[in-house]
Amino acid sequence: MSTLLLSTALITSTETTLTYQLEQVADRSDVIAVSVDTHQLGAFQAVPARTLTNDTQPDLFCVAANGDRTSIEYQTPIQCDHVTWQLPLAEIDQDGFDIAKQIDSYEPQKGWRFVSEFNSLPRFSAHNEGPIPAQVCAPDNQCGWMPNADQPPLFVVWGLKPVELDINGKAIKVTTDTEQVLQSMEKWKPALESQLNYLISLFPESAVNQWDIAFFSRDKQAGSVSGAAGSDKILINAILNNGQLEESEIPMLLKIAAHESMHLLDTTSPLWAAESIAEYYANKSLDKTTYDFTDPQTQWRDFKQSFPFASTGLLEAHNRVSNEQQYQYYPLFYVKGPAFWQAIDQSLTDKEESLDTRLPTLTYNQDGSLSDASIADLTKVIGKNKWQELVKLYL
Predict the structure, then answer these.
(1) What are phi and psi for residue 170, nearest 5 degrees?
(2) Suppose 173 and one of 34, 212, 231, 263 were both cysteines; which one would form an S-S bond, judging by CB atoms 3.0 to 4.6 Å apart?
(3) What is the pTM of this model?
(4) β strands within 42-169, DSSP E
């Protein structure tokens, strides 16, 4: 399924492609070696990996046929038959995998490994052109294509037994380190089918319509739960209480699945809108199942009583997070943002319209604000007074 996000032109191209082979370092459960055969490239240069929270890059080495190793500098022309580097893995503790950090990790008891493209997988280019197409292969020989730089990152997971589910007629591979997730599958699978079918229908022009899902346990006492969207799979925390997956936690599991799925479908919205739309539709998708979640308006009304930056508008928060890295404003995207979109949706519904049909046509200005065309489309239905009221309350 990773080839879904690879353009047809790339798949059928006869141009050079690279293979990154990941291997476990002997006697080192916490280190992965990556090797790339580059002998066919001629002159090329290494391009730094995409980064997440810091600028750390792996140390690259050119390995000669006799085993000699020489250091490679990034963005400096070189000829080399073989490039290699190592990735240290963080050991998962008793709290479980903290997906939000997206740190290369391993679980010694359960035997799985996780590598993120971020800070770990540099690219290679020749003749000052774009990155050379490449696939990344795990030790189990499962491979995924490196996505374009404007797409979600590649996540590589191995050491977990996959289970194929038929979701809306599509084969989706599910892996988990939590057996209880599979044991309770008959409870959550119908809801997930409904959610994904609904979310995919919102973006009829999207070529992405299926992706893998990986569930990882996270202890409730850790106080945090998260998910992440990769180029061909989404990662989801399953909350365990004293080692048990409780029925009451399944709605959260499904909500995270929907939220991260929206990130694969909605690829053009600015940060504040992408997060708040994903969260709103994660809630709305649950409305169509036997599960439900707190109403966004109600959640915002309660949340703003104690959140110190509640009076900050969504656009100002977007600027502070995007341009100034002031992440203390980020929670507004998850709570104030969904309340805004629910208010828009309700206002449209009152006029027998819906946000659903407008979602794929929304456009934004460079600063993240809704475009004049989108505002005009909305105000034509809900009225300028209502729009100004919502702008004052939320934006």
Answers:
(1) -115, 140
(2) 212
(3) 0.85
(4) 43-47, 60-63, 69-72, 78-79, 82-88, 90-91, 105-107, 112-116, 123-125, 134-137, 143-145, 155-158, 163-167
